[in-house]
Specification:
heterodimer, A: alpha+beta, Alpha-D-Glucose-1,6-Bisphosphate, Chain A, domain 4, 3 helices, B: 120 residues, mainly alpha, two-stranded antiparallel ribbon
Chain lengths: 165, 120
């Protein structure tokens, strides 16, 4: 398994994940820098990604869509903050509207990728994602809320059903 | 038997949370308070009952730790709390899963391209 560590900090709204690959940093860098390789891993197999813009330079834009099994498209964008090949990328990662423009209402994630040689021909890649603002996080929470509340209510129904009348 | 708890006792208590959520109006208040935009007065306007009755419901939710009152400027708004923390945890779990799957695909791609000798 390539994943070697997971760091979660709920208060700081941060998820960190480390992975080690049997490859050089230059090779791992290509997974990000070559749009055709990026497309092979960014989206899930049932929702493959297509990058229509790929500008890996500071201030550069990435635009992509993922195509679902029924042909529906989910759009997304990145804005590149800084780039140091082959060791570091930081970018903002957001959702797109159905017409491909940026959706400014949905949350933006700030991501930092660090790629380092660790000896023995191996490379460690660390990806850290921070949810930009509390408001942004709450947007996501509000979307997941219904599911949570339905589950809680379902449990209450179950409890009530067990109580003898 | 219901024992009134001090408002400061915000540690999640499953019994209290279930009791608080067993009422439809209170479930609706938790849902509306996700955005934290409304105070008790505004919330009360949504329900065909007295302000005092809605205030009581909010107090029950507050004791269960499901909502908190928060000052924004001159106003005090009601904001959902404990369930939000759980939702945040679930969200981080989903992101972890997403990245684990991505890294598996990255590893597969590196292996596959090594075999086609595009990279040493």
């Amino acid at each position: 398994m390539a994943v070697t560590a997971i760091r979660k900090d709920l208060d700081a709204r941060t998820l960190g994940i480390d992975a080690e690959f049997e490859a050089t940093p230059e090779r791992v860098w290509q997974l990000w820098a070559d749009p055709r390789q990026l497309e092979r891993w960014w989206g899930p197999p049932m929702w493959p990604a297509t990058f229509t813009t790929h500008s890996l330079t500071p201030g550069g834009e990435m635009n992509y869509h993922m195509t679902g099994p029924d042909g529906e498209k989910a759009h997304g964008w990145w804005e590149i903050v800084s780039v140091e090949p082959p060791n570091r990328i930081s970018f903002r990662d957001g959702f797109g509207n159905p017409d491909g423009t940026r959706n400014t209402k949905l949350p933006v994630t700030e991501a930092e990728v660090v790629i380092k040689a660790i000896g023995g021909g191996k490379t460690r890649m660390s990806v850290t994602s921070v949810y930009s603002t509390r408001e942004a996080l709450e947007e996501v929470l509000a979307m997941g809320m219904e599911e949570g509340l339905t589950a809680a209510v379902g449990q209450i129904d179950g409890i009530l059903a067990e109580v003898p009348a | 038997m219901t024992v009134a708890a001090p408002a400061t006792a915000l540690a999640p208590d499953p019994d209290r949370i279930f009791a608080a959520l067993a009422d439809g109006t209170r479930r609706d208040i938790v849902w509306r308070a996700m955005t934290g935009e409304e105070g008790v007065v505004e919330l009360a306007a949504h329900y065909p009952m007295s302000f005092a009755a809605v205030q009581k419901h909010v107090a029950v939710l507050e004791r269960a730790g499901l909502v908190t009152k928060e000052r924004i400027g001159r106003r005090k708004v009601v904001r959902s709390n404990v369930e939000a923390i759980r939702a945040a945890q679930r969200m981080l779990d989903r992101y972890e899963q997403l990245w684990r799957e991505r890294i598996t695909r990255m590893e597969q791609l590196l292996e596959e391209m090594k075999e086609t000798e595009r990279w040493p």
